[in-house]
Design a protein that fits this description.
The structure is a single chain. By secondary structure, the protein is an alpha/beta fold. The chain folds into 2 domains: 1-77, no CATH class; 79-271, Vaccinia Virus protein VP39 (Rossmann fold, 3-Layer(aba) Sandwich), CATH 3.40.50. It has 8 helices and 13 strands. It has helices at residues 2-38, 66-76, 99-105, 120-132, 134-137, 186-195, 212-221, 241-249; strands spanning 42-45, 51-55, 58-62, 88-93, 110-116, 140-143, 146-148, 152-158, 177-185, 201-206, 230-236, 252-260, 264-271. The strands form 3 sheets. It has a 7-stranded mixed sheet, with helices on both faces. A 3-stranded antiparallel sheet has the order 1-2-3. Strands 7-9-8 form a 3-stranded mixed sheet. A hairpin with a 2-residue loop joins strand 2 (51-55) and strand 3 (58-62). The model is unreliable at 3-27 (pLDDT under 50).
Length: 272
């Protein structure tokens, strides 16, 4: 009898947790939908469970729920709040699903975008979004490798539920498919691209899950930060002090925020 009661309680508890989780997910979705609607977007899931986020000037698809909050951070919360007053070339280091590149491609003063994404399953999702926005994607060139401070081929586990959360610095997930990725020195890749645009400002958007701690020093050591005008960067995994110092040494005005103390935050840097 006691075993039966224990089994009943376990089943009841599991059903309760499932219902609470389903309710919480539905509540979050309605909150997301409300915010997107305020920004003029239509949001829905189709019969294949693909997420659609659409407005007249941009369309996004995703297969994981973090598509919602990634899109909200860019489209609604204006996380990358840069409004250029002259022509700029943008370097999107951490392309993810392509939301930020496509968002900035709408701006006529962003003349070209070079994007970098080392995880091929994420690249495939991003390429789908490029195909949905043919006018905007004309500005965007996607490189299917990541930036670092060295040439390297490594293997990391890929989590399809968090397609923008993999790191090239350390393996965050113990489960999932192992993915081989290619990394190249940021200075070697970016210098010839900088050289192609001598008359435009240089804007770096960086969200690469910790690799910024390799990329920024590499650009600094090779004199390329002197050529950069604007950096908007999400920093990760430890105090941002070393990054802030490098940028200050390169004559940037800096605003640094913490989303999680000494774990994650934003750096917005404009050349003085």
């Amino acid at each position: 009898m006691k075993k039966f009661i224990c089994l009943f309680l376990i089943i009841f508890f599991c059903i309760f947790i499932f219902k609470i989780s389903a309710y919480a997910e539905e509540y979050r979705y309605e909150e997301y939908k409300k915010q997107f609607n305020e920004a003029g977007f239509n949001v829905y899931k189709d019969n294949k469970n693909i997420i659609h986020i659409e407005r007249k000037d941009i369309k996004i698809e995703g297969i994981a729920d973090n598509t919602y909050w990634t899109a909200l951070s860019v489209f609604y919360n204006d996380e990358y709040n840069f409004y250029p007053d002259k022509n700029y070339v943008m370097f999107d280091i951490g392309f993810n699903l392509g939301m930020t590149s496509l968002w900035f491609a709408r701006n006529e003063k962003i003349t070209k975008i070079y994007a970098f994404e080392p995880f091929l399953p994420t690249c495939k999702l991003g390429e789908r979004n490029l195909s949905l926005n043919p006018k905007l994607s004309k500005k965007i060139k996607l490189f299917k490798f990541g930036l670092s401070n060295k040439n390297e081929k490594i293997t990391m586990h890929y989590n399809p539920d968090l397609p923008g959360s993999m790191s090239s610095v350390f393996d965050r997930f113990n489960t999932g498919n192992p993915e081989k990725i290619t990394l190249k020195p940021a200075s070697e890749v970016l210098k010839p691209l900088f050289d192609k645009h001598p008359n435009e400002g240089i804007f770096l958007k960086i969200d690469c899950e910790g690799a910024e701690r390799e990329i920024i020093p590499d650009l600094n050591n090779n004199g390329l930060l002197k050529r950069v005008d604007v950096i908007i960067m999400e920093w990760h995994d430890g105090p941002p002090d070393s990054l802030v110092k490098i940028l200050k040494d390169n004559n940037f005005n800096i605003h640094c925020t913490h989303m999680f103390y000494n774990r994650q935050g934003m750096i917005v840097a404009f050349k003085k």
